[in-house]
Sequence to fold (836 residues):
Amino acid sequence: MEAISSSFELLSHPDRTLAKHLSGCDEASKLQLSFKFIEAERFFHPELLERMRHLLVYFHDFGKGTDYFACKIVEAIRKELNEPKPHDPRWQAVKKFAESTQDYLDYFEKNKRFKAASECGRNPRLGDHAKLGAYYVLVAFEHDDIILRFIMLKIILKHHGNLSNFWTDKNKNPQIYLEEEQLEVLEKQLDNLDFELYQKILNSQGLRVRRQDWDSIKKLVTDSDRLADVENAFEDRKDIRYFFLQHFLFSLLLSADKGDVKLPQYVPKSEFIRENGLLPQWLIDKYKEKILGGKSSSKLNDQREEAYQLVAHNCLSNADKNFFSITLPTGMGKTFAAYNAAVIMQNEYAHQTGGKKPRIVYCLPFTSIIDQNAAILEEILAFGKTLDPQIEATWLSKNHYLSNYNQLYYKRELESQEPEYLTDGWEHEIIVTTFVQLLDSIFTNQNSALRKFHNMTNAIFILDEVQNVPPRYYEVIERVFREMASYFNTKFVFVTATQPFLFKEKEAVFELTQGKTETYFRQLARIKLDQHLLRSNDYKEMGVQDFWEILVADIQENPEKSFLIICNTIAQSRWFFNALKATEAELIYLSSSLLPPVRRWNIRRIKASKKRKIVVSTQVVEAGVDIDLDVVYRDFAPIDSINQSAGRCNRNAQRGTGVVKLFNLGKHKHIYDSVLMTITQEVLKNFGDEILEGQLFDLNSNYAAAVRRKITDDNDVSQKLIKAMERLQLETIEASFQLIEEDHRHYNVFLPCSLSARNAWSEYQKIQAIEDPYERKTKMKQHQPRLLQYVTRFPKSKYKPADPGAFLVYEPDWQKWYELDKGYRIDVEGDTTLIV
Fold:
């Protein structure tokens, strides 16, 4: 029987052999690594990385050589075939594979299945496959640095889950040291593993695996004293390179492993894993000429063009640097200047590195403004393609929880899980995403988030509105970005009107408007900040009725002007909206409480309507919402938020001088850091009742310096994270980094408010009923963007659903609780449970 057995092949999945799977993983990861630029002297040599990659591929599934694992696959094949789905390509692939391996399936059924199934029934862990390869790679990879060998072990050990703390996980379980119970399971697996068949796979790779190597492995990983010495020596090193190495190699393996499953078997991986296309350096210039060619010149447009050209010139002259900033007033063309800078850097990067082409990643703080930025980039690519057929519209993808997957890649129409693989893995040339997607893929132990990390290493990152990053993380973000620049030549462009001191040494970041930054602020006179309401009350809280009388008088005395009132809480914004219903102007409401399609519609109304408008909003209007009104009232907020609000006032300098009036109704304490508010008050006190736009440069500089001193230098959050990175404490990092605080005060509620909404819910229920968890997860990810168009938040303090434990609450009587034009019904004046 053993002679017959040796003629068969080991199985990996219900539709492929292990040899086929490992070959696919090897092809994918080899391609991925070949496209990367690595600073060998600062990081690890590319030849060493290639060796480690190769061994990770061919040992990560070593445990699939056991009878126990084969039993699981045989059972999976039988289950698939017993539930015929003739029109399902996956089912067809399993059927075809079963037919081609029928002799082996018959042999296994007759000689091995009963014993393997019985033993797995008594101990299900026998069917696991990651651990054996994790320990066997220790003898396959010989290196003087034992930490590198242990990193290989950890990557294989966790490739189907999340990375743990390196030596002992958060539950105090040893991660490298093997206890007696674990040894018994592994040795039982070894006794039922076909070394001969696995060696057949390794022969073509120049690798070897032997049963007798287990003795030396066991000796190493059961010596607790030696492991303790290694751990102590490692923690004394404080070498953060190991963190990036583990992230990088883990990401490569995950990408290859998932890619072999999600991408079609019989299509070369190079059809999907491609070298990045190079955007022509003229692209943004020519696009700007196209859209602005027929427009008459103005002083503001001339200033925008001058700034754009200065950024381009400085970018070309300093392309060898890694950190840049574009500091321009709101409405001065930062976005186009940033696009152009990224294209210039991409071309220079390729020139400097012998042809390595980085992807461009445009990061924004909120999902609500991603679509409009992506739409501009889509137009740019479509225009570029008319001049250069090498440009592809499919080079762009959006990556956030509300985005849909691209269904085309180059000329290929994508099927099944291909769109998910390409989008979630950041395989496109240009990615528009959020700060959360970027930073949560670095400060994490999560398998799904880390898969894209290897494609982040050589990228050009544009961080738009970077002031939204919490200051407590400045120090650790600076450390991470510096290391990525050093190891992989990653580049970062920080874009904002209120440049924070993200880097402690301001000189480390090259300002692309250098020499003119202050001038660009001082020469503008579109707006003024009016803080007499704050100063007259010594910055203390004023009564709602007192403020209401002032607001109404202003609206009545200026019938030709449009107004924007920005409140700090949804409850307060609704109160003002209702109170202003009697005005003759077109009254429009905005807040995050509105469903996304309603919010988009209201923004279009603001921009398109020729009537006098009064807009009542929360701070959701600040980030990238391109609207322009005459008078803005802003409830007390940090200076960077005040600046963003000011960007909605007289944006295009067409109506004299706009005014931004600051007031304080006391609600800032519910949403903003108290230290930031204290700093804001102290800085504002150094200015008079009116602060002209030309003075905003001084205001912003004073504020940024004070924030850096007070918050970033007086907290230990960043230091804790840096220490955890040096010690490879990945669970600690995951628990300690939270860009957006979790919201435990609200239910996520689905509103069946239209036929489209009800159809979306019906589809959601069908997906939830799918038995196969893998298929259910895939379809849910595809459906989620549509479903979330009809989801909002209800406060737990007021709303009691029928099923409070549901992930998503369906509310059939939604009109009792919610108004489409104003959001959640709040009946109690002063309610602060909804705040943004």
Remarks:
- The mean pLDDT is 91.
- The chain is about 50% helix and 10% strand.
- The first strand starts at residue 11 and ends at 13.
- Residues 241-262 form the longest helix (22 residues).
